[in-house]
Write a structure and sequence with these properties.
With about 140 residues, the chain is mainly α. Helices cover about 45% and strands about 0% of the residues. It is built from 5 helices and no strands. About 35% of the residues are buried.
């Protein structure tokens, strides 16, 4: 399932490729195991985020399920609190901690499916930021 088919009621991806602003970070050395290209979600609008996720999915870097996990984990379904042009607050110094709190809360309340989505979303976010090589993190 492509991201546009699940979100077209609220956030249809924009066809303009200029609206996607992934940050390209060069690996510090040849032996650095991290990927040279990383997505920086820390300074994107909601529209840019959905465009970036759509691009990742359409190029095969993430699956449809991973796209859903990422969107659900970051809680960006349009609930009216963010417009397409408002910026996300996904700095690496706080977004991981927030998601870990979501995981702990869901676990404590027995919401296993929500916890599992958050775990996969956190692992995917870390992978896309170049700190994990694959998404197979266990709780």
């Amino acid at each position: 399932m492509h991201i546009s088919s699940i979100s077209n009621a609220t956030f249809a991806p924009v066809a303009n490729a200029d609206s996607v602003h992934p940050a390209t970070v060069e690996a510090s050395s040849v032996s650095d195991p991290r990927p040279a290209d990383r997505y920086d979600f820390s300074n994107m609008t909601v529209r840019q985020f959905f465009d970036a996720v759509s691009e990742l999915q359409s190029t095969g870097q993430i699956s449809g399920d991973e796209a859903l996990d990422l969107i659900c984990t970051l809680g960006i379904w349009n609930d009216g609190s963010l417009s397409h042009d408002e910026y996300l607050d996904l700095r690496m110094d706080n977004s991981y901690e927030i998601i870990q709190q979501q995981i702990a809360c869901a676990d404590a309340q027995g919401r296993i499916a929500e916890r599992d989505i958050s775990i996969r979303g956190l692992a995917l976010l870390k992978r896309l930021n170049g700190t994990l090589r694959r998404v197979d993190v266990e709780a």
